[in-house]
Amino acid sequence: MSAVLPVLRRATAVDSAATFAFVAGVLAEFGLPAEAHNTDADLANFDAHYFTPGGDFVVLATSEGKIVGSCGLFPVGAGTVELRKMYLAPAWRGCGQGWRLLEWAMARARALGFRRMTLETAAVLKGAITLYERNGFKRDDAGRHSCRCDAAYVRDL
Q1: In a domain, 21, yes or no
Q2: Domain that holds residue 62
Q3: What CATH number does the domain containing 25 carry?
Q4: Other residues' Cβ atoms within 10 Å of the Cβ of residue 12
Q5: How many domains does the chain have?
Q6: What is the pTM of this model?
Q7: How confident is the model at residue 2, as a pLDDT?
Q8: Whose CB among 62, 96, 122, 144 lies 3.0–4.6 Å from 152's, allowing a Cys bridge?
């Protein structure tokens, strides 16, 4: 980890392949599959899947341009947004960057007019689950639909 914090910025089309590779690497670390033509197809086109429908997607990038974090807001219904693809590279875990991404996500969701946030996760992502629960997310598996996820959470914004 560098002493210089990564920059939080809106993802662009140029980031698509690198973001998919980054997400796939984090998933592999936890024994989870990346699915370029299914669950992770949204990373191929941020405009169509996030920006145009009224959501957002950001990456954390080092000064060298390497993506070390990601976070998306995917509209799923009236007033509800799904937190998607919130991942961090191992070197950036445990130093406040997860909090940074989640705080951005909740503030940005509110600014976009959302009143509720959902997310899906896997039990092997223990650090992420702890972060979500410490930030008021409650377990709610009613809406779970991704094949690699075995838990869902929700919170009012």
Answers
A1: yes
A2: 7-119
A3: 3.40.630.30
A4: 12
A5: 1
A6: 0.93
A7: 57
A8: 144
